[in-house]
Specification:
mainly beta; Tachylectin-2, Chain A; Neuraminidase; 2 domains; 4-stranded antiparallel sheet; 47% strand; elongated
Length: 570
Amino acid sequence: MSLSFLALTLIQIKKLKMTILFTSFLHWFMVLPLLVSEAPTETIKIADFTKSFEDLNTLPASFLVTNNITYNSEGGHLQGIQLYNDHTAYLSGSSEDLSYMVKMELGEQSRVLSIDTLMHAPLRHAGGFQIFDQYLAVGIEDNKERNLAYLQVYNLEAENPFDKPIYTIARKGNYERVTAGAVGITAFRGEILILVANWDSRVLDFYSCPEQDFHNGKGEFTLKSDIEVIKQTTSEWSDPKWLSYQNLNLFSDQKDQLYMVGTAKNEAGDQVADLFKLQLPSSSAKITKLNSKIFNTSTSVDFKAAAGLNISSEGDLILAAAPYQLEKNTTINLFAHKEPSWKKTREWSSQDARQAAAATELHAFAINNHSISKYDRSTGELITSRSYPNTKHLNSGFLSGGLLYCAHSNYPNQPDSSSIRIIDPKSLTLKKTIKLRQSKGSLTWIVKNKGYWYALFAYYGENNHLTYLAKMNENWEILQKWNFPNSIIKEMGKMSISGGVAWEQGFVVTGHDEKLLYYVTLPENGENLNFIKQYKAPFTGQGIALDPLTGGLIGINRAEKKVVTAKFLP
């Protein structure tokens, strides 16, 4: 039902009163199932949950979400957040008069899609929740009397999912013992397992029902076990701290282990996610703390309000977080899997951005087959351009000792002939040409590293596996050379290695067209380079260079005729 229909009819009020008939004992409860109309999708499970948690990036991607729906949240705030199908987010909330669920779209134009009422006062507080497959499990409680709560499970694929829950577990009992401030749900060993944390997460209750019965709409949840946290031994914990978790999410992994992740703000004001391993035998349930991570949120975002962990459609963990209130414009943070990458920092248009780029702290250079253009980095303004007669194929640029060393070849002519054109970067005048008479293949890039020159000689077509990296002395004599692994050459198609720089313990190189970088190192023995890692890149192959201003790279987007700078995000 929509928030525009806030008033319950007298009939609805009577129905609500009829359902609030509980025993005073927690272990007795009501389950009201409805048939689940659609078969569940295949559940994605993490291969190694502890590693995936450790690999979460602590810096967020941020989305500014626009809201044009009017509603009254006075007396409450946002409580939980979960992602669904990657680009949709649900947020639970409380207010003086009702509990509600927000649905928003995250993307280039992020916006609130709907706000639905869940229940009315006294069940005004929808707490931390979790989405598993297409099912959303949330606790809705009386946060004033603190002696009444409903666990509701909704099918998000239903036409109006929040009109009716498919399961309801009712809890009534002692003050604060039966509240449901944080709820988690997952499938584990043939059961659907629901976690309910009471006030300040002092006690964890675990309900279960057979998984097949749950999907058929015939599930009957029973209390499987409970954990009173204060009685747990913490000697095996990574640290002894247990927080008042606003959200607690359940997960099982491919190793058939059960995990719980809690989010909160600690006493120092840090935004914290804690990882626990759960063991739930019929007696003596056990919880063990494995790890704790601190996340750097945007100013308004707060784990004490709403944060929740999710598994993406790609099988990666994503932690979402929100502020206390849903405003006209609300910031949502996503902390994704910590996959190192090169991110674009700036770009300039240039007609000469066809072969390579290079840079000083003040200037950027776009390199074409026969010409070079020089730009002011601060304004993007073209300073000067120069063409070079008797050149066939300028491939890259490397700045050393106040000079620009450009790799040059006669490709595609035969036999191979390569040279180095030394340019004055101030005036772009040609100072010197060095012919490499002994080389075979086409020279595509050169760099100097640890007193030696390293040059790439490319082969194309069916011979591109002959491409090699050469180590040369000051007289440009080849001292040693290495070929590339087949796994890299296969990705080149009929083309070859086009760009490269010395980076970390080896070299990062590009192909001809794809937005990829390959990190390779020199072998201790043998004639093949070691392939260490592949990264996504914002440039489309071709010649690259180190950027002395940022410590990153500079390259080109050939199709768009742009010079692009990038920074490495570990």
